[in-house]
Each structure stands twice: as structure tokens, then as C-alpha cells.
Amino acid sequence: MSLVRNDKLEVKLAGYAVGTPAALVDPTLLTRTQDYKRQTSQRMFPLEAADVPKRLSSAEYHVSLKIDGEFSVLAYADGEAILVNPGGTVRVGLALEKEAAEKLKAAGINKALIAGELYYARPDGKRGRVHDVSRVARQPATKAELDGLHFAPFDIIEIDGAAPSAVYRETWTRLESLFKKCERVQLPESHWLKEGAEVAKQFKAWVNTGAEGLIARSDGAGTFKVKPRHNLDAVVIGFTEGVDDRHGMIHDLLLAVMRQDGFLHVLGHVGGGFTEHDRRAFLSDLKDAVTASEYVEVNDQVAYHMVRPEIVIEISVLDMISHSTRGTPMNKMALNWDAAEKKYTIVRRLPLVALISPQFIRRRDDKQMNAVDIRIRQVSDLVEVPKADLDARKMSVPTSVPLRREVYTKVLKGATMVRKFVMWETNKRDEADDFPAYVIHFTDFSPNRKAPLERDIRVSNSRGQIDELWTELLTENIAKGWAAVEGTARAETNSEPLPETAVAKPVPKKRAPAKKKPSDD
Questions:
Q1: CA-CA to 418 of 20 to 30 Å: which in 174, 374, 444, 514?
Q2: How many structural domains does the chain have?
Q3: 502 falls in which pLDDT band (50, 70, 90)?
């Protein structure tokens, strides 16, 4: 296939395989997928149903049923089609891809990028959820189950090098003509409406039949995502205090839900929905509950006062986002509450969600901190949360792999100077945005300096760039007079752990011509 490298794919079922970005012949396919996702997310405004009649002025709106699936881009070239999602997962060999490729080829198209939702059409006719997509796409049990994966196109990114029309009605009309009479590539149900009241009425009709919500697009008014609000119960684990006219009140509360393994998982913070009486009462109660913690959460450069997990509250949220626009999980800290020591200890970061428009509803004096009342499944039943059911104590962080190591020495005024370069691949890029893909650590030791030990770190998510940074560091820091320590240079193919120190004799170097003096660097 011209779009992928087959040797970089992992076969999941006969004819169906998945891969990482390394499987893409054209790596810009991932970049364009992520760019499109980021741009559309920035332009899309979340809205609750009650505000629709007020916020949506008179205009032409294309209102489509919101599909509960995985955003993906259908990449087509020369009769072949694949799917790429913002996280870099490449899917090849789906029946829907074959169907789409046939339609695009019949239309005389050579290349195309089509944005849409990968979703699962359940055999029982009920609404498929994103959990279904993840389960089937990652580990399909049968071909029939795999064929239940469908694609709902909703936008054109590019066709044969040309961007779509600026008029969305024309884009939608073209999508309809390209994919008419398809079985597995079907546009979402939609209507053209002109008033906010009409959009609100359509939202109610769809949600009453079990739909997730709707997307309203207007060339003039913008794009809106309308979903029902969801209520969650969570325990208060921290607070910040108000200032100025809110002195003596809480500013916001830090919340957590409980994982099945018993650890508290930081959910987010809520600062809206409180009356002034609520804010004063919470501050009075929480000041007496301040406790020790290894973990510190910060909001607007203000650290939360961590408190004993005793007060459960109910909040509502307009939406919950489980992945960034690049497809990486929204990692939050999991904590262990030691009741005997009255202290929070850090477990590790794990995927959860970002809360959109959280609002305080009420205290839940009838609920307590336990795995039922504040269960994480309140969240994971609504959105996909990777590793939500796993025991955090049994999970290990992927091990870094050393790639190169070089050590150089030089004797000056009777003292030995050492410069060491180490490069490694973290293998933690998918764990969190905190981790780069590659790291170089440079150590410069010179006993004659006022500050003998100096360090420098370079990071990158590109192997090509990190190799360039390696060459740059060597060029800047290793001149004549420096001798490579024997046996410390590392080949990528050697996967054995690197020694922390090298005990070897310097490699003899050729004598420089007499007219050139060695550098004293």
C-alpha cells in the first residue's frame, strides 16, 4: 500500500492491522490530522441546551447528530484508504476504508483527506459508544464485529490538493454526492435550520431518543457543540482562598473521584455555582481540615491547601475531554490517602478528563468517600478513560532506552576534565505531555573552575532533530586536545544498560601538524 509501510503494522485480525506514526509513508498526515483537530476544537463553542435559543441568532445552521466515536481522518491516495487519528494510530484494512476508496476512485479523485468520526454500529440497534470503538478497533473478536466499525464524514480537509469551499453547504453537498448509497460510510443525520429555537427543539428530539447531542455549524455565527450537562459526585481534597472582595471565602475547590483500586484520582476544580454563603461556609469548614501532602496542585499560580477527604459535593459539567487535540490522554495525579498518617502520598499520573464548565450544585451529606459514592465510573461510563479499571500499583512506567553515550577527557594544569554526553529515548511520550520522546544530558566537569560541575539538557520529540542537537553539542564542546574514552560510544543496536562510569584509557589521537596549536578550550 502506498500510504503505509506494511512492516510497521501489527496485524489484529486477518486483513486488519494497526500501526504507529512510523507506519506512515508521509508523516505529515499525522501533523495535518492534529492541526485540523486543534483548529476545529478552538473554533467550536460548547453550549448547554437552555442557552441555545438565546445564544444562536437568526442564521443558516447545519445541525447534525453528534456521533459518539473516535475522531479520525480518512486518507485516500491512488485507490487506497487508511484512517489516522490525532494520537497517531493508523488503521488499515477496514471494510469501510475499502468502501470509501471505491467511491472516491469512481469519482475520479486521486487524493483526499476527509474528517469524520469512527463509530461502532451495534447489532442491537442501540447507540454505539466510544468504548465500543476502542474495544473493537484494538482487539476485534471476529470479522463481523470488525465490520461493525463505520465512518461518519462531516468535513473535507483537502481533495486533490484543493481546500474545500468556504461555504459549508457546498462542502456538505459534495460529501453527500461522494458517499451516497454507502453501507459503512454514512453522513450523520442532519437538518438545515434558521433559528436558535429550532436548534433547541431538534436537540430535545434527538436526546430524548438517546443521542449524545448535536453540532450546529454556521458560516456566519460559528460552530457550537450542544450536549446535556452531566452530574458527578466528588470529594473535596483542596481549596484556594478568595482575595479582595472575596476575602474570607473560598475561591474554588479541588476535587477527586475514587478509582477501583482505592486511590483518589484528581478530577479537577470547580469555582462556579457557589453563593456567598456557600463560599464562607466551605472556608470555615475546610480551614480546620488542612492536612499534609506530598502533592501540590496549582491553579492561577496559587497552590491549593490540601484537606482531609471528608466532604462530598455534587457538580454538573457541560463536557469532559479525555484526550488533547494531539490525541494524548489528559493525565491527572492519583493519590493515596493515609488516614493514619493524615497525609496524601503520590502514586502516579494516570489518564482522566478535563472538565468543561463545571458548576457546584450542592453538598452531598448523604455520601461518603468510598469506591461507590464517588466512583470513577461516573466519568468512564460517559467518556473513554484509558486504564480506569487497572490497579495503579501494578502499572509500571515504560523503561527508557539509552541510544548513545560518549565520554571525553582532557588534562589541563595537572587536572583531568571530563565531558559526558548521553542520549536516550524515554518511551513515555504517550504517558503525558510532561515527557519528551528524546533527551540528551550533557555533563561538563572541570576541577579548575569556580563551579566545577555544569549540566545541560536538550529535548525533542523528533529523532532527526535530537541527532542534530547531539552533533551540535559535540561540535561546540569537543575540540582538539579532548580524548574519547575507549568503549563509551554506544551503538543504537546495543540494548544493554549503559554503565554509569567508564573506566578505560583514552584513545590515542593523531598528532596535529606543527603549525597548528591545540586548543586550550
A1: 514
A2: 3
A3: very low
Q: Domain of 19: which CATH number?
A: 3.30.470.30
What is the rounded average pLDDT for all residues in the chain?
90
Has residue 441 been placed in a domain?
yes
Q: Would strands 222-226 and 44-47 be described as parallel, antiparallel, or unpaired?
A: parallel
In this prediction, residues 34-46 reach a mean pLDDT of 93
Mark whether 381 and 404 lie in a shared domain. no
Spatial contact of 286 and 292, defined as CB atoms under 8 Å apart:
no
List, for residues 63-105, the tens digit of each pLDDT value.
999 999 999 999 999 999 999 999 899 999 999 999 999 999 9
Domain that holds residue 144: 6-43+68-186
Identify the pLDDT of residue 486: 75
Task: Using alpha carbons, list the distances in angstroms from residue 112 to 29, 73, 216.
Answer: 11, 10, 25
Q: How far apart are CA 280 and CA 335, in angstroms?
A: 27
What is the pLDDT averaged over residues 196-205?
A: 96
**Residue 490 or 277, more confident:** 277
370 and 385 belong to one structural domain: yes
In the predicted model, is pLDDT for residue 191 greater than 70?
yes
Beta strands 190-193; 292-293: pairing state? unpaired
Specify if 209 maps to a domain.
Answer: no
Q: Which domain-ending residue is among 348, 378, 394?
A: 394
Maximal CA-CA distance, the chain: 90
C-alpha cell at position 474: 559535540
Antiparallel, parallel or unpaired: β 354-356 and 319-321: antiparallel
**Residue 55 and residue 218 in contact, taking contact as beta carbons nearer than 8 Å:** no
**Does residue 150 belong to any structural domain of this protein?**
yes
Name the residue among 59, 45, 40 with its Cα closest to residue 225: 45
| Structure letter (DSSP) for residue 287 | H
Which positions ≥6 away from 89 have C-beta within 8 Å? 18, 19, 20, 327
pLDDT value for 494: 38
Predicted TM-score (pTM) of the model is 0.72
- The pLDDT tens digits of the residues spanning 219-250 come to 999 999 999 999 999 999 999 999 888 899 99
- The answer to whether residue 224 sits within a structural domain is no
Are 354 and 416 members of one domain? Answer: no
Return the CATH number at 242.
Answer: 2.40.50.140
Instruction: Specify the pLDDT at position 489.
Output: 54
Q: Are residues 277 and 412 both part of a single domain?
A: no
Distance CA(294)–CA(344), nearest Å, equals 6
Phi, psi values for residue 511, rounded to 5°: -70, 135
Instruction: Give the end of a domain, one of 358, 376, 394.
Output: 394
In this prediction, residue 1 carries a pLDDT of: 52
Cell numbers that stand for 413 in this block? 594544569
